[in-house]
Model the fold of this input.
Amino acid sequence: MNLHVAMVARTLNVRHLRGTGRYVQELLRNTRPEDQLRWTAYGHDPALPFRVPEGLIGQADVFDFRGDRFRLWEQLGLPLRLRRGGAQLLHCAENTAPIWQPLPTIVTIHDTVPWEEDIQGLDRHYLHDVQKLALRRCAHVITISESSRRDIAARWPFLADRLTIIPHGIADEFFSDSRMPLPAVLEQALGGSPYLLYLGGAQERKRFGWALELLARSGRDDLHLVGCGFGAGTAPLDRIPDSLRGRVHFAPFLEDGELVTLYRRAVAAIYPTLYEGFGFPAVEAQAAGTPVLFSPVSSLVDLVGPLSWTNEAQDFDAWLAALREVLALPAAVRADKAAAAAEWARGFSWRRSVARHFEVYREVLARHG
Done:
């Protein structure tokens, strides 16, 4: 059965892709002609690039709508556009949805973190009141881990029987033999020094300070730290102690191939986050053959693999002992673990994830016509 799906793809209508944008892009990129499905991908800002993949099966539609500050693009502009767009289903892949749903609507809620943050005013009203109404009307909800499913069902019990877990995949570049160089500015800053790779950005729950403390107490004066995930202007330069000046660097925006190289060349990846709906770095590091240290919290419980060292979130001494163990790992042992980890990581396939999405689409269409 040929299926026409409208995809809210505002996270592709940006200068640089982030996590949710990667999810949307992979759904579009991994669609094949034999799937008998075509897309209309909707963006909201004609002034910015629209990063739909080359060879998109379907079309891109970028339009603006007055009052976007008050979410009118989502609540009014999009539903009006859908009425003449010819799609059979709407997939809102970025946590939120319109109350007016002229098509059967599927929402992906990645995690409940936005609802747990301390926000006030119109933003709070939109998330807590408007979205509660929108979710009541949606046909189905997709989420990305058992941890997120539990959190969603606890917050919105009326969704419990409309929830499907579909884990993310990781990019094909992690399984490719091709190599890309690092950006010249980062290569020059490192000067060939070994480094730890911190993943997470500036949010408090990601714990950049934890990574700084691990570097300071690692016992290796030659070791550097590369911070990844910081947007422009968000690198916390003021938090770097004088003793670590010159050994802490922040990665610029990286293409997928550059990110793979950054992982592969790291001595270890440090991922001290306290909560994730799906922890890409825990899988990506292992796919790249790099040991990764994290705590088995929330969805990360399901991402413990052959190259992971896991420790209780607040036990710094255990983290430090694990790091020192990784630093002393014999090359042959590391190579054996890396081979096992690469095979394990192949279970996180975008193609498998995308095919499961298509099953949900057809199930919903069969129920709602």
